[in-house]
Amino acid sequence: MKDLIQIDHLSTYFNTESGKVKAVDDVSLRVREGEIVCIVGESGCGKSVTAMSIMGLVEEPGGKVVNGQIHFDGKDLLQLTKNELRTIRGNDISMIFQEPMSSLNPVLKIGEQIMEPLIIHQKLSKKEARERAIQLIEQVGISRAKQIVDSYPHELSGGMLQRIMIAIAISSNPKLLIADEPTTALDVTIQAQILDMLRQFKEQSNMSIMLITHDLGVVAEMADYVIVMYAGKIVEEGEVVKLFESPQHPYTQGLLKSKPVLNQRQDELYSIPGQVPNPLELTESCYFHDRCEHCMDICRTQQPKLKEVALQQKAACWLYEEALVHG
Amino acid sequence: MSAYLTKRISYMLIILLAASLLIFSLYALTPGDFISNNIKLTPERKAELREIYGLNKPMLERYGIWMKNALHGDFGYSLAQQKPVLTLFNEYIWNSFLLAAVSTFLTWLIAVIIGVVSAYKQYSWFDTLVMVLIFAAMSLPSFFIGLFLIKIFAVDLKWLPPGGMLTTGSNAVGWAYAKEVIKHMTLPVVVMTLLGVGSLTRYFRSNMIDVIKQDYIRTARAKGLKEGKVLFRHALRNALLPAITLVGFELPALFGGSLIIEKIFNWPGIGQLYMQSFGLRDYPLLMGFTMLLAVLTVIGTLISDVLYHIADPRVRLH
């Protein structure tokens, strides 16, 4: 399969009053055509900022992509002008967000909001766009599309709104759909429906999905390939079955251990000790060292690089570097 | 909607009735009246005049008469000007309205544009400059800016007339008349706009800053919309919503005249007439005008509620 998007050494920093935050720090990843890549990690690990960097929507001033390349369709997205990027946004790459309730404009009709990208990207007339909007609403499984098109966001439920967001996102047949925690705000039955729908659209149109989540259940169900992020860096990545079967990085191991298992009553759920480090106080080290049960001296002073530790599986951890050295 | 309007209008009538009672008693209970001021009159003549004007009747009866006439559209007779109150209003109010309408329009236009731009470029040099200028304009008293501008533009540069609505002795008609009025109203309009634009700009700026951070703005950008569309179609509409409340307050302000500005620029507006009537204790005129403001305030509130309903689909009227 061909690479659809390839990110090389992406770094996005935020200048805050108390100092520089490296929200995304030298991250490289790729998504192939028709593939679902999941980015997993705790809040604040840089998953969403990675997505926003691709979209060119990192909030300025303050946030800035300081380094890297994002190759998409033969172009480096970071070198494009704002206008060129705008023709890609919502067209070749589209995005859905975590909070469907607040992601739609409260004073505009659902129809108008679906029609907007159709009019700009597909150059449809208002009338055609409206017809297409009704089709799209039906396509995302909402009945009474003709009424919904003229209703306002507050008149629909969260699940319906997320379907509308999906309708907007798929309206221009994107090559890449970025879904930033699309089901976090929804209840479990709706979650499954939304994920099914995403997968179904993926199958139909061979689009790729970059799914950002902290829910390992979602990962197991959806992903082809998994990327685990911690404090702005990729700590482990690999093909989904392998990663779940034999996680290499202690952080991934911890994450998988802290996942509740269905039908098993545990007295206490495992949790990784300690807390995510303060991004302002990071020094050259493995950022996970003070929470890691295998912490060694080198972990405190040097940063491990992402290395292939098994077939189709990479991890950034000194445990494996040592193993290589002492073979 | 019509059920709501019926309910609202009946409330309005109750409020206005209470307001009329309050306004009437305020003026009726204040010691002294138009006649007691006049030292040239003998006590006998004063008593005679009070008899004629009905001022010797019990207060409640006088209120009843006033209300009855008011309901028939007759707000009495100005004692000082010897004309019906409504005729006087008609003569003066439109002059005030002209100033207020133009300056309100300019104030809102400038405030929206500058507010949006400085919110969009928050903490930029433009934003900082605007904030400094706004605080300067807000801190200076109107009589100071007024006199200062008269000194520069009317006295020193002689570009604009220092006051009045028409050049003394002018009998221009048609376009020439309009041109003359425009020349005369420029300075007062500038001063009124300067005074109002500061707080309103800050208001729009902070509304806009809140709105720009909302998720739906991010969605609009993610769709690939142009920045102008994002700002004016998606953000501004939401940022303007809370300002609808202010529209209701603008209505009495449009007709209420401005005491200080009209005095400084010698503008023949209702504000000056009102001020003058205070000195003369011309109570029928004062009562009539205060009542008019009460009516406009109540209507303004109703209008802003209805506008809110039209502009924001989430607002339901009950």
TrEMBL record, chain A:
Keyword DNA-binding: no
Keyword terms, alphabetized: ATP-binding, Cell membrane, Membrane, Nucleotide-binding, Transport
Chief site of localization: membrane
GO cellular component: plasma membrane
Membrane-topology annotation of the record: Peripheral membrane protein
Name recorded for this polypeptide: ATP-binding cassette domain-containing protein
Domain of life: Bacteria
Residue ranges occupied by any ABC transporter domain in the UniProt entry: 5-256
One Gene Ontology biological process: peptide transport
Protein location: Cell membrane
Species for this entry: Paenibacillus dendrobii
Gene Ontology molecular function: ATP binding; ATP hydrolysis activity
Pfam families: ABC_tran, oligo_HPY
TrEMBL record, chain B:
Residues of the ABC transmembrane type-1 domain: 93-304
CDD domains recorded: TM_PBP2
Entry protein name: ABC transporter permease subunit
Organism (species): Paenibacillus dendrobii
Record's bilayer topology term: Multi-pass membrane protein
Principal subcellular localisation of the protein: membrane
GO biological process: transmembrane transport
Protein location: Cell membrane
SUPFAM superfamilies, A to Z: MetI-like
Entry similarity comment: Belongs to the binding-protein-dependent transport system permease family.
InterPro entries: BPD_transp_1_N (IPR045621), MetI-like (IPR000515), MetI-like_sf (IPR035906)
Record flagged with keyword Transmembrane: yes
Transmembrane segments: 92-117, 129-154, 185-204, 239-265, 285-308
GO CC, one annotated term: plasma membrane
Keywords per UniProt: Cell membrane, Membrane, Transmembrane, Transmembrane helix, Transport
One Pfam family cited in the UniProt record for this chain: BPD_transp_1
